[in-house]
Amino acid sequence: LWRFGYSARLLKTNHFRTAASNTSFPAVWMLLAQYSGTIPARFVVVKKNSFFTMPETVPETDKANLELFSPHPGVRGMTLLNRAAFKRTVVVPVLKVKKEIVNTLLKSLKHTVLQRPGLKRVVEDTEDEDSRLVILDPHKIPEFSLGEAEQEVLKQLNVCPEVSKYNLELTYENFKSEEILRAVLPEGQEVTSGFSRVGHIAHLNLRDHQLPYRYLIGQVIIDKNPGITCIVNKTSIIDSTYRNFQMEVLAGETNLVTKVKENNIAYELDFSKVYWNPRLSTEHGRIVELLKPGDVFFDVFAGVGPFAIPAAKKKCRVFANDLNPESYSWLLHNCKLNKVDNKIKAFNMDGRDFLLGPVREELSKELPLLKEEQKTSFHIVMNLPALAIEFLDVFRHLLVGEPCSTAGLPTVHCYGFSKHDDPAKDIQERAEASLGTSLAGRCSTYLVRNVAPNKEMLCISFQIPADVLYKRPCP
To answer: Cβ distance 163 to 133 under 8 Å?
Structure first.
């Protein structure tokens, strides 16, 4: 639950009790720790991802840092970035040290020396070319006076323990993104500015109070994140037909054709015209992991191919479809890019027509030939969370005849959103309504991610019951 974004509120519900009863001690401890606000260091898992966030709240231990390392207060309310206005000078403690022993001193006083990315810990001594000034952390040196432990270290190194004051100049380059935004936005308003990275593009979803500062926010993200050259902000909800949305370029170049790599496979796409979500990489990998070479894979809403192409590389026979002409075009392009164009049959159709046409035709041809000892599996992926469950009624009497092998019945992986208190139950009940049968004991639900507060994305997987899929001929 912790990995996929369940909020602490769910710990009070049956979700937590169910998870706790089926989870190892570290995982349960992680859930309890998240609820209490403290996560033990030994259980923290850091995962590199394509989603980045800036902290919304400030820990007590960092408040002193904010006071010292904050931009000039005159930047408050700035809407167009003026980097020069962030300059300020702070007074920090320094030790005068002979340059020959600087490295030794840094190792001996590593917990006392200033540790801040982008700032030099050692600077020139303008009055003595044989010496250097080592900058100390002002929070570790109260009243510019060293403690007994530090003084003992200096005594062993034959260094004068006298601490001097040094005027340290901080510029825009020395401040972190969240420090800059916290200084600019009105006090008391959250500065969280999470973004998804899609190649050279950073995709933001700014809130209303951040919009007056959107161009500044965009430029700051470019400045502080090497490799990002274009910032876009979503300006409308996702179109349910083509799964893309209107966006505004806030900073950088206007080139929205990008290249991304997911699970060691490269994709190219026009981010303004097709759907791509880097937060789904784990889910793409999970489904592909279920496949075996020789399986038949139908992707009803294929997009640019994040399910279909890895399946083809796993030597499955793949049928991939998308209604959006742009997605279909980039799907063909990515098939060639990854050298699987001869393993994927691509279609540009409505999802319902794809199921009633190519999918029914292939199942009608393949399933009667399937023998009990054969291990070929058929998988149908329906990743259109806003609408996919409504398409499940297509499977009612899709085929005519008798099933030759119940083991060969196709497995459906259907995605949906839920705002229900029990999202798994909600998804199952809606799927049962579309299919016209109960799935009790015949399905599994998987939490994919938390989309928004009180909105989950789930995947329900099940084998289509024979009495649903087949229409028996009249005697």
So the answer is: no
